[in-house]
Specification:
alpha+beta, rod-shaped
């Protein structure tokens, strides 16, 4: 009879989980989409980092070019000052040259007039008159010496002015050449400043492009982040719906099984079996003797209808959820007993022994498979702690603590899921059909609804 009850439970659960299967399929699709979106978000952030690095390099280049341009502009200003000073030198030299030329011309004219007067007023007679008029030889020699000194002075003055004019002329030529060189350097610096400004403008344009690309990439990153939030919200909604459907299917299966068990029990109590002669007999004895059984109306009875319960009781036992209870489906406490005394660390040590075992929806076996709440229930049963069967009920067990104060052995409760906290942000839990019982490194991978302390 219990076999038929289990079959009935499975049938009800299979019908009830059709919606959950569709929800799980869409949930898996959303998780794949979310993984792709996360990869795109990571790639976009990497692109933003590269753009910021490129922009920083451009800013460094612009700063260096600006410094060079400032140096060039300072050099140009210095050259302009040198050119202005050199022009003043040239003008002063030209003025000095003109003054020397004028002095030379005046001296030359004065000398010509003295010589002209001397020779026009007597020529050789002038020398004769000077000799005649001299009172003595000493006066004569003095006048002659004086005249000679005048000639020598005029000649030396002319030579001096000629040298001065030559020096001033050479200095003027030198200043002109230096000015030309300075003007050439200025032109080169001006050309260099134009090139530097062009380079600066070019890099500023590229930097502006980087800003535009960064802004666009940031916009895409924001959109990806928003999409991930939407996908996560949809995943959590579908997960909640799936878990609710599974729980409802389980509840309906349990209800149907209970009703069927009650009905069959009532039928079994009323059912009396007879042999072929109409005598009331014991069904088990009759079957052992190979006799055929009949109901009170004389109809032949299927032996299984009256012997299933007894056979089942002798072979296999089931819990209230339809799970087979036998040596292969039940943890032997002596085999897996933790060395701890029931502390949270002992719970963790015991629970982690089953990492790698399968996830079975509705299961409570630590060896052959359990779901999330069945895993937690069976682990704590080893330490004498009785827990409700579902994750929703376990969420109210024990004492609530904050996640910041979570200790090894505490229950981490999520929407429709439960895990055992290991410490250091890790959890051990019956995750899903793909991963089975496993350890996860991030207890906050989903929204935590409650943290419960049991030991």
């Amino acid at each position: 009879m219990k076999k038929r009850i289990v079959c009935l439970m499975l049938a009800v659960m299979m019908m009830g989980t059709q919606v959950a299967t569709v929800s799980a399929s869409r949930e898996e699709e959303l998780r794949e989409e979310q993984a792709w979106t996360s990869a795109q978000l990571d790639a976009t952030y990497s692109q933003i980092d590269q753009l910021y690095a490129a922009k920083e390099q451009l800013q460094n280049e612009i700063a260096a070019l600006d410094a060079n341009l400032v140096n060039v502009m300072v050099s140009i200003q210095t050259l302009e000052g040198d050119i202005s000073n050199k022009q003043a030198d040239i003008e002063q030299t030209q003025s000095d040259l003109q003054k020397a030329q004028n002095a030379k011309d005046k001296q030359y004219e004065a000398m010509k007039q003295r010589i002209q007067y001397l020779y026009e007023k007597g020529g050789n007679d002038a020398w004769f008159q000077m000799m005649v008029n001299a009172e003595n030889l000493s006066e004569l020699l003095t006048k002659a010496e004086y005249t000679q000194k005048m000639y020598d002075y005029d000649r030396q003055s002319l030579e001096k002015y000629a040298n001065t004019i030559n020096q001033v002329t050479q200095l003027g030529n030198k200043y002109q050449q230096e000015k030309a060189e300075l003007e050439g350097m200025k032109q080169e610096y001006e050309a260099e400043s134009v090139n530097l400004q062009a380079a600066i403008d070019e890099r500023r344009a590229v930097s502006a492009d980087c800003d535009n690309e960064i802004a666009y990439a940031q916009q895409m990153a924001n959109e990806y982040a928003a999409l991930i939030e939407q996908q996560q919200a949809e995943i959590e909604r579908l997960e909640a719906e799936r878990i609710a459907a599974e729980e409802e299917a389980r509840r309906q299966a349990e209800l149907a099984a209970a009703e069927e068990a009650a009905r069959q029990e009532a039928e079994a109590e009323d059912e009396t079996v007879y042999d072929e002669e109409g005598n009331e007999v014991d069904a088990e004895d009759a079957l052992e003797n190979g006799e055929t059984l009949y109901d009170e109306e004389g109809n032949e009875i299927d032996p299984d209808s009256v012997t299933d319960e007894e056979e089942s009781d002798g072979d296999v036992e089931y819990d209230e959820y339809g799970n087979v209870i036998d040596s292969d489906n039940t943890v032997d406490p002596e085999e897996y007993q933790s060395s701890g005394s029931g502390s949270g660390s002992s719970v963790v040590d015991f629970a982690t022994q089953f990492v790698g075992n399968p996830y079975v929806w509705g299961g409570t076996s630590l060896t052959d498979g359990a779901d999330c709440s069945g895993f937690v229930q069976s682990v704590y049963a080893n330490f004498g702690v009785s827990l409700p069967r579902t994750s929703y009920e376990q969420q109210n067990a024990g004492t609530e603590v904050s996640y910041a104060d979570a200790q090894p052995g505490d229950l981490i409760c999520y929407g429709g899921h439960v895990a055992i906290y290991m410490g250091d942000g890790k959890i051990v839990h019956a995750s899903n059909a793909k991963d089975g019982i496993k350890i996860s490194n991030d207890a906050t991978y989903r929204t935590i609804l409650s943290v419960r302390r049991l030991v």
